[in-house]
Specification:
globular, 5 helices, alpha+beta, two-stranded antiparallel ribbon, three-stranded antiparallel beta sheet
Length: 141
């Protein structure tokens, strides 16, 4: 974007039933929690999620209301957190294998900031109120 620092988020291109655009980690965790992942994919998910948990702060542990009071809130990587995006291709590969759409979004102003730390911001996103498509996955039987 022509020298402008941008925030980055990987998320579903369509909202779920409550109107949230589930992020890349939530999408892969949804597959894992519903039993869709192979043993290798589940190993990657657990190991890499553990690495993220040890590497950067979960905003909800600092401010439990950030998501609880703001169900549409979304976390975006800061420009300085490029190293935290190194494992992203593995998550994208899992989603592609299971035909779950996930896209990269960039914005210099992703929304109204609710939380900020050295790696991320959590914002109320700027949304198109006329967008009505939804994404859902039923439990595996």
């Amino acid at each position: 974007m022509c020298g402008v620092d941008v925030f980055v988020r990987y998320q579903s291109p369509v909202p779920d039933r409550p109107g949230r655009r589930i992020g890349i980690f939530g999408l892969v965790n949804m597959l894992g929690n519903r039993g869709y992942l192979s043993a290798e994919e589940e190993r990657f998910r657990r190991t890499t999620n553990d690495w993220y948990d040890a590497t950067y702060t979960n905003p909800a542990t600092v401010d439990p209301t950030v998501y609880a009071d703001n169900p549409l809130a979304a976390a975006w990587f800061k420009p300085s957190a490029a190293h935290l995006m190194d494992p992203i291709p593995g998550y994208l590969a899992i989603l592609a294998t299971h035909n779950v759409p996930c896209e990269r979004y960039e914005s210099p102003t992703p929304g109204r900031v609710l939380y900020e730390d050295e790696h991320q911001v959590v914002v109320i996103p700027q949304e198109d109120p006329n967008f009505t498509s939804m994404l859902w996955l039923r439990c595996r039987v």
